[in-house]
Amino acid sequence: MMKRYAAIDIGSNAIRLLIAEHNERKGQSVLKKPLMIRVPLRLGDDAFSLGYLSEGKIALLLKALLAFKNLMELYEVSDYMACATSAMREAKNNTQVIKRIKEELHLDISLVDGDLEAKIIFASHIERELAPHQNYLYIDVGGGSTELTLLQNGQLLHTKSFDIGTIRLLEGKVTQSDWDKLKKWLKKYVCGCTDIVGIGTGGNINKLFKLSSSKENKPISISKLIKIKNSLDQLSVEERIARFQLNTDRADVIVPAGEIYTSVMKWAGIRKIYVPKKGMVDGIVNLLFEKALNI
After folding, report:
1. According to the 3-state scheme, what is the secondary structure of 213-267?
2. What is the DSSP-derived secondary structure letter of residue 11?
């Protein structure tokens, strides 16, 4: 029997809708993704500079979520989960915004903290498609935060969220103290791990991987990632858009994203990173699947 589930990720740079179909065939689960939509709202522009979401941003958010709701109804979704992350966490008026979404659109929004965000990303279980006994560090870089999750022999050992994100970096909101906290955590939990490999999630690492011309399902080395990041850094935003056909909302954040990924890899002693096309919404969908199976 086929069921459809929807995942909504309200992030700092963009909001996303994933609708996934789950079929049981001959005792095996088959997953298809008939719809994936990304809308670059940049809630972080308000949240990190003003400390709240302006009426203009709220209006755009409501319009986008109304469109998502209509699509969910059109696809006859059985269940959904909508999660708001760093920008919404930081906005002082987040309670009012979430209440307004509930009253006007009848959608429930979960405000997730950084550690839960990291666990949801881990729920996509990318590592199962790779070597099962390898040690991995999940690195997810968003507009407002970076989530790190350490995995050893298939077991989640440690997870941590840091207030270091692409939009925060662009706006000068990341301090040396923030970087020091990240380095201290890596030194305590990750640096002693042998043969550790990175798993990078997020739109920016996907684009960096594509620009590297690396083969699908193969990792990219830190040296190659640094080279691409440096070449982009030498160009203006307009030049990045023209030369690499980057979207406007990607062209400015891709360099700070590369800085975060390569810094984490360098400090953790990671020489290569896998870049599967999965992220927060995939983790949400998997949680919905698991919830349905337990009923």
Report:
1. CCCCCCCEEHHHHHHHHHHHHCCCHHHHHHHHCCCHHHHCCHHHHHHHHHHHHHH
2. -
Is residue 273 predicted with pLDDT exceeding 60? Answer: yes
For residue 117, the tally of other CB atoms under 10 A from its CB is 26
112, 195, 207, 227, 263 from 232: Cα distances, Å:
33, 29, 12, 9, 16
Which one, of 281, 292, 293, lies nearest residue 81 by Cα? 281
Number of other residues whose CB lies within 10 A of the CB of residue 289: 18
Residue among 184, 171, 186 at smallest CA distance from 12: 171
Contact (CB, 8 A) for 33 and 108: no
Q: For residue 88, with 0-12 CB atoms within 10 Å meaning exposed, 13-18 middle and 19 or more buried, which class applies?
A: buried
β-strands 146-152, 135-141: how paired?
antiparallel
First and final C-alpha spacing in the chain: 15
CA–CA distance, 138 with 149 (Å, rounded to integer)? 5
User: Tens of pLDDT along 75-122?
Assistant: 999 999 999 999 999 999 999 999 999 999 999 999 998 888 888 887
Alpha helix stretches (DSSP H) within the chain: 43-49, 55-74, 86-90, 94-105, 114-122, 166-170, 176-189, 203-211, 222-233, 237-244, 248-251, 254-268, 280-294
